[in-house]
Amino acid sequence: MESQQLHVIFVPFPTPGHMIPMIDTARLFAKHGVNVTIINTHANASTFQKSIDSDFNSGYSIKTQLIHFPSSQVGLPEGVENVKDGTNSEILGKIVQGILMLQDQIEILLQDLQPDCIITDMMYAWTVESAAKLNVPRIHFYSSSYFSNCASYFIMKYRPHDNLVSDTHKFTIPGLPHTIEMTPLQIPDWVREKNAATAYFEPMFKSEVRSYGTLYNSFHELESEYEKLSKTRMGIKSWSVGPVSAWANKDNERKVNRGQIEELGKEAEWLNWLNSKQNESVLYVSFGSLTRLPHEQLVEIAHGLENSGHSFIWVVRKIDDRDEGENSFLQDFEKRMKESKKGYIIWNWAPQLLILDHPSTGGIVTHCGWNSILESLSVGLPMITWPMFAEQFFNEKLLVDVLKIGVSVGSKVNKFWASIDEDGVVRREEIVKAVEILMGNGEESKEMRMRAKKLGNAAKRSIEEDGDSYNNLIQLIDELKSLKIARELVKS
Ligand code: UDP
Predict the structure, then answer these.
(1) What's the 16 CA to ligand 1 centre distance in angstroms?
(2) Are residues 273 and 286 in the same domain?
(3) For residue 15, which atom of ligand 1 is closest to its CA?
(4) Is 320 marked active-site?
(5) Could you identify the atom of ligand 1 that is nearest to the CA of residue 372?
(6) 398 lies in a domain?
(7) Does residue 122 surpass a pLDDT of 50?
C-alpha cells in the first residue's frame, strides 16, 4: 500500500529571484499537508534551512535533500554556488557551468525518491522528460508575471521587431489586450536575434507547453486579463498562488532569515535610521540580487538621489576590479550622506521585506524583478521602474502602462550587468525627475499611491482563507491527490 500523503519534490534554480519564491511555495505546500522535499546544493540550502527546520519542528513534513555542487571541477572556491555570487563574467560562467552539471544528480534523486509530482524551475526544461519517465506530472514554476510570459510568447510568435528601420524604433506587441509599445533594444537579446542563449531559452518555453501546468507567483486581481490570455490563447493550465512571500513569511524572524545567512550586523543601525524618518518619506533603491552597476552608473545614481532632496536607502552590490578612485567616491558619498542623514547605503544584501514593510518607506526604485515588484505591491508601495535585463522591461510596462503604479526612469537597453556599457547609463537628471514625481506631493503621485494601496489590499485578500490564491493552492493540491489515486488504481 502506497503512502496516502502526497509527496511533491521542488527543484529550485540557484538564483535568489527563482529560489526564494520556490522555497516560500514549497513551505506553503507543506503547511497544507503535503510531504515536501526540496533538492538543493549545500551553500544554497543554507540560505533557507532555518525556515525549513522551524517548519519541520512545528510538525510539517518538509525536508531538504542535498546534492553536491561540482566546485573543484569547474574551478570555483567552495560555497560559490549561486548566480548572485558571480562578481565578474568569468566566475559567472563557471557558476552556470556548475549548475548545468547538476542534472545527473537530480535525475538519480528523482528516480530514487519516486515523488507524486515534481515542481521544477522554468530553467530546468529537461525535467519534463524526468516526469514522463516517472509517470508523474511536472509543474513548470515560472518566476515572473503572466504579462511577461504573454508578451514573450506573442513577440516570439509574430516577431513584430523584425524589419524595423532601427533598434530604437517602437513596435506594438501583438495579441495583448492593451497597446504596449517597446523598442527592439528593450527585449532580451536572444529574442531580438538568435544567439547562443536562444538554444538555452527556447526549450524552456517549449517545456512549459509539455508540462502539466504552470505555477505563478501572482494573484488574480493583479493581472486577470493576462492570466486569461495565457490560459486561452497560449493554452496553458495555470494556478496563481501569490504573493507567496507575504503568505509564507508572516513574522519578522522569517522576513530577516529569508535568502541570506550572514547575520545582519548593522541591523540596528539601518533600523534606527529608518525609525528617525517620517512616514512614507524614504525611497528604497535596489536593483535586485544579481545586478552590479558600473562606476559611471553609480555616480549618476549618487548625484541623482542627492539632488532629488529626498531621503533614501540604497543597496549597492560590490563588484571586482573597482579602482581606488572609484571606491573612494562611494565611501565619500556614504560619509556625506551619513552626516546629512539624507541617505543610507547597505552593502550587498538588504533585509528587503523588513525595509519595504517599514512605515517610513514610501516608494522603491526597482529593476522590475518580479519578486521585488510583488513584495512592494504587497505593502502598497508605488515604484520607479528601472529595468535592466531579461523580462524586466515587460514587467515595467505592466507597472507603468497597465497598473499605473510606476514612473519609468527611461531605461533603454536590455543587458545583463556584466555587459552594460555607456549606452545603458541613465543620467542623473532622469533620476531626479522620476524621484520628484514619485516622492513629491503632486496628483500623479497621490493617485499612484492610492492604486498601489488598493492592489496591496487585494494581495492580502488573495492569500487569506477563501481568497483566490488560497483557493487555487488548495485546488491544485486536491487535483494532484486525485491524480495520485488514479495512478495507484491503474498500478493495482
Ligand atoms: N533580495 C533581498 N535583498 C537584497 C536583494 C534581493 O532580500 O539585497 C531578495 C528580494 O526580496 C527578492 C529577491 O531577492 O525576493 C530578488 O528577486 P527579484 O525577482 O526581485 O530580482 P532578481 O534578483 O531575480 O533580479
Answers:
(1) 6
(2) yes
(3) 24
(4) no
(5) 20
(6) yes
(7) yes
If one counts every other C-beta atom within 10 angstroms of the C-beta of residue 190, the result is 16
Torsion of CA 468, 472, 474, 477, to 10 degrees: -170
Return the closest-CA partner of residue 391 out of 140, 176, 230, 186: 186
**455 and 467 share a domain?**
no
pLDDT tens digits for range 291-320:
999 899 999 999 999 999 999 999 998 776
Same domain, 352 and 485: no
Å from CA of 22 to ligand 1 middle: 13
Whether residue 181 lies inside any domain: the answer is no
For residue 75, is it within any domain? yes
Pairing of strands 138-142, 361-366: unpaired
**In the annotation, is 121 catalytic?**
yes
Say whether the ipTM exceeds 0.90.
Answer: yes
**pTM value > 0.90:** yes
Query: What is the total count of domains within the chain?
Result: 2
Identify the domain containing residue 87 by its residue range.
Answer: 7-157+195-248+463-491
Question: Is the CB of 16 within 6 Å of ligand 1?
Answer: yes
User: Is residue 490 packed enough to be buried (19+ CB in 10 Å), middle (13-18) or exposed (0-12)?
Assistant: exposed
> Could you tell me if the CB of 184 is within 6 A of ligand 1?
no
Tell me the CATH number at 98.
Answer: 3.40.50.2000
Tell me, in angstroms, the distance from the centre of ligand 1 to residue 64's CA: 22
Q: Which one of 55, 85, 116, 121 is the catalytic residue?
A: 121
Closest atom, ligand 1, to C-alpha of 259: 7
Beta bridge partners of 383: 364, 406
